[in-house]
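quick one: 2-acetamido-2-deoxy-beta-D-glucopyranose bound model?
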Amino acid sequence: MRTSIISAAVATALAFAGLGSAANITEWKSRSIYQVMIDRFAQTDGSTDVECEMHLFCGGTWKGLMNNLDYIQDMGFTAVQISPIVKNMEEHTAVGDAYHGYWSVDNYALNDRFGTEKDFKDLVAEMHKRDMLLMVDVVVNNMVQGFDNVVPPKVDYSKFNPFNDKKYFHPYCNVTEWENSTNYQDCWLYPYGVALADLATETKPVVEELGKWIKGLVANYSIDGLRIDAAKHVNDEFLPTFVEASGVFAFGEVLSGMPDDMCRYQTLGLLPGMPNYLEYYTLNEAFNGGSLINVAGMRNSAASSCNDTAALGSFIENHDMPRFANRNDDIGLAKNAMTYILLNDGIPTVYQGQEQHFKGNGTPFNREPIWTSKYDKKAPLYVLTSALNKVRNNAIKLSSEYLSKPSETLWSDVNHLCLKKGPDGSQIVFCVNNKSSKGDSYEVSVGGFQANDKVVEVLGCKVNTADTMGNVTMYMGQGEPKVYVPMDSLKGTGLCTETQQDGPSKNGAGVLGVTGSMLLAAVIGWVVVLA
Ligand SMILES: *[C@@H]1O[C@H](CO)[C@@H](O)[C@H](O)[C@H]1NC(C)=O
Ligand SMILES: *[C@@H]1O[C@H](CO)[C@@H](O)[C@H](O)[C@H]1NC(C)=O
Ligand SMILES: *[C@@H]1O[C@H](CO)[C@@H](O)[C@H](O)[C@H]1NC(C)=O
Ligand SMILES: *[C@@H]1O[C@H](CO)[C@@H](O)[C@H](O)[C@H]1NC(C)=O
Ligand SMILES: *[C@@H]1O[C@H](CO)[C@@H](O)[C@H](O)[C@H]1NC(C)=O
Ligand SMILES: *[C@@H]1O[C@H](CO)[C@@H](O)[C@H](O)[C@H]1NC(C)=O
Ligand SMILES: *[C@@H]1O[C@H](CO)[C@@H](O)[C@H](O)[C@H]1NC(C)=O
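yep, here:
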């Protein structure tokens, strides 16, 4: 009996592994992604005391990730994006070693710094067993060698596999004109420490070879989706051919804060999705002296310029940019940024360490090893992320309209943005603000529900009732974000199994002339237990 149960489980896992490689855009929209840089995520033996020189290898492996999937899954993520997997150059350079995986030399060999082929296949099988999708970062713009700052770089092309000849590359020139697409697509990027030999992705042999390669990579390792590094730096025509050859969904990196510049990749059918840099920049400003009105404005621009904002990756941190907390480490602001990212239209993408409130500056300081946190599941942003993912996953389960319909702006001003996402009955109504943890206490009335709906604010587990207009009174304080759902929609989720009646916070009580302890007593008296 026992054996037959096990073999049934194995059969199911194998069946899913087969299906896994067919994950399409619809499937990806329902996921939320945790972004891992393998060298910085986990040691094979789970040690948490390994010292890390930020520009060198620090020892993270695929097996380390496999052994720590609980940390990611318990936070509610349903997909993992990992750093590149192919063999990199071993040279030491003025800008460090290839610990990040972006310096490919052999597309047909796995990077043995991160483990064996079996380790990698075991990782993928374990993820699929857990119904998690795998997105792999791939480099198509260039192959890489060390560079001693003598121009033009002396490159030994015979070291590359399969592009072992100069004929597959653009002649050397340095990208200098960031507004001239011929220049930033055909010239070589980053000419210090390493030479990024720029592949001639407009030529037939290169297009065909990369197509064959990606098809094989996806099939051999059951990869469910791709992130295409530096997509803006290859010619437009290359991208759709490559994505089609892969057979899976892809994000292409298009680093631009201008809607027309970025969205054309989607409207022209060059890429299915991109990390949403439009909102990244405006969000960062809104939490650093700017205004949330501008975020509301950018949402509208993105919605009218891009044809599918639900396929954009919603993020506030990645491995290329200084951490959010590097500019301001206020925990209140970080909570609001996290809330927006997870409940926004689009595919939430959280970069490892964001949930631990890491503060690193630009590369390589934004690549802190996560083990220094000892994988703390009690960290405030870890707890918050877990709740938000559960709320989102539940809303998707209750209605597919959650994903297909863009959210509605209920209210925005310089300090607030309130949105409603999902249809009545399973909607999420949330407000983010930029007041910071020093924020004052006040009340706002926000709509999005039906008259007299019983609602729960899921971050504080407070219950309230909508008024006859369907508005809910939100008791704001300490710059906390607010996330409301209909009480009935939480049944069976394990969220807010104990709740209290909402009301002015302890801080606000002073303003109203009621003492904190009196109010607290009143609040505690009202406990509702959900199923
Ligand atoms: C995506 O795949 C699912 C099955 O996994 C299927 O039901 C759906 O129709 C597919 N959608 C598209 C757009 O191909
Ligand atoms: C490449 O261009 C940048 C400016 O865009 C310049 O600072 C750098 O010195 C150039 N490097 C080489 C090797 O030409
Ligand atoms: C754009 O860059 C290319 C390649 O460097 C150069 O040949 C061309 O003259 C540039 N175009 C303009 C308008 O500057
Ligand atoms: C995939 O596996 C086939 C068969 O072993 C092999 O010929 C091919 O090179 C592999 N492709 C990649 C990208 O690893
Ligand atoms: C967006 O535009 C592309 C290219 O025309 C098209 O393939 C895709 O289906 C469109 N997506 C949506 C959601 O309209
Ligand atoms: C929030 O927005 C206001 C109004 O635009 C701005 O004055 C304030 O500096 C912002 N707060 C933070 C922490 O960025
Ligand atoms: C109800 O909420 C909306 C925002 O969703 C707001 O504009 C309106 O003023 C609120 N109504 C009342 C009576 O406060």
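Residues 410-411, 445-447, 469, 471 surround 2-acetamido-2-deoxy-beta-D-glucopyranose (ligand 7) (CB under 6 Å).
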